Amino acid sequence: MYKRILLPTDGSDASARAVQAGVDFARELGAEVVGMTATPPFHVFSTDTRMLEDTPELHAASAAASARRTMDPVAAAARAAGVPCRLEHAVSDQPWQAIIDCAQRLGCDLIVMAAHGRRGLAGLLLGSETQKVLVHSTIPVLVQR
Amino acid sequence: MYTRILVPTDGSGVSALAERAAIDFARACGASIVALAVGQPYPPPASTEGAMVIDAALETEALQAWATRNATRVAGAAQAAGVAATAVTDIAYAPADAIVEQARRHGCDLIFIGSHGRRGLSRLLAGSVAQDVLAAATVAVMVLRPQPQQLRAEDDT
After folding, report:
1. What is the ipTM of this complex?
2. Which of A24, A25, A143 sits opposite B143 (nearest CB)?
3. CB contact at 8 A, B43 and B93
4. Whole-prediction pTM value?
């Protein structure tokens, strides 16, 4: 049915739950998964503490390391479930756009993502990135709580 | 993994796409379906001065008949595809709340919902019932997106 499922994650607990659900689902369907995360590009002017004293090169290296750490749990979950998995690290200020682009580029037919991620405010019922993915996606989105 | 899927139907084209997808999904997962149609009455006017008053009993009767027709149609389609299905109806001013409540009542672990593409500025907004369901749901929600030909058709209307 679904053959390649995109699992975006921002490293939050909510994301982790969604990733596990996505992996379990993929196992049941015999599908493969694509884990992905987005990190912002280097900006000269930034309030992001990770960037303040960086050079573009240093930033890229630390962003890549951070992305690997964020996505390691996805690879681990997929491995444990015997589900084929690849990882994608997108550099973008707009996670929703990176998610849509990745899904399109890799021919994914389903996105499984959390209702909200790290920045989930208590009063926000549906996260902003999830909202935007829902508005712009042309493939189904399974919103996991 | 998902064992009981709530499939709301409103008789529209968007809904029909979600219904077909839900039936395929249920078959692939070995899940059963709860087909729900929610009749939505007009809110009663605050004052009846100069307003057209709808016979509430007649309206409820008509809505119930509409809901039964649609829920039964979807349940029937599911059964024809080899998927166990129940037809459920409800009458509510806020369909999204009814959808979430019926999902809870029937022990559903997934809600399938379609969403409108709409035209112009409202293309930026996801379908409003879908939005409300997403906000209130305590279980996973599968959101089907409109197909390109559907968006073009809506542009022409």
Report:
1. 0.89
2. A143
3. yes
4. 0.88
